[in-house]
Amino acid sequence: MPIRNFWSLEPDECLVAEKLLDRLPGCQVYFPVRDVGVDLLITSGERHAGIQVKGSRYYTQKNGVELPPEKCHSWHQVFVKKLDRQNVDFYIFVTSIAREGANRITKFDTRFLVVPQSEVLRRVVAKSKGERGVYRYYFCFNNQTVFDTREKSTDELFDYTAFLENWDLLKHSLMP
Q1: Coil, helix or strand for 71?
Q2: How far apart are alpha carbons 58 and 98 in whole angstroms?
Q3: Does domain 11-174 have CATH number 3.40.1350.10?
Q4: Pairing state of beta strands 139-142 and 76-79?
Q5: What pLDDT does 160 receive?
Q6: Considering just the CA atoms, what is the radius of gyration of the chain in Å?
Q7: What digits encode the pLDDT tens for the residues 115-157?
């Protein structure tokens, strides 16, 4: 039985687990020991939700040149063959945005998009599939709005603002 290295858990998974415990008191968070199609499992009483975590840093430059705010983005991938897994209830897209001090990066701000699996499946029809069977997401954070700029469209399917830090979506699925 292959066991993933739980002595060095993925940092984004740990950030999400910490946030879940903070935002959803009374819930328990579990890390699977082997690959079962989810990165985290959260439970509350008899209810549970499988969570897939996708992490990225935030890109503010291209070829050493500063990008305008509307062109900055994170970069996440979702493989087509893994998209319809039955045990995934939510995708949480994690973006780490570097904040620079006088001489160097001094801290990271972390942004979370909490997106139900049903919403990912509904929106993916408007995306183009990459040559390797991968859907790519380029999330641009501009103040309190979030857009997937990958497809260069203003269609409502690319507006992810409603999912920004929206832990209530998970809470409502776990709490009666």
Answers
A1: helix
A2: 7
A3: yes
A4: unpaired
A5: 94
A6: 17
A7: 999 999 988 888 888 778 899 898 988 888 899 987 766 677 7
* Pairing outcome for strands 47-57 and 90-100: parallel
Strands (E), the chain: 28-30, 40-44, 47-57, 61-62, 65-66, 76-79, 90-100, 105-116, 134-137, 139-142, 145-148
CA separation for the pair 174, 47 (Å, rounded): 6
Q: Dihedrals φ, ψ of 173, to 5°?
A: -80, -20
- Give the C-alpha distances (Å, rounded to integers) separating 21 from 30, 34, 43, 170: 11, 22, 11, 12
- CA angle 70/72/74 to nearest 5° reads 130
Neighbours of 75 (CB within 10 A): 15
Report domain extents, the chain: 11-174
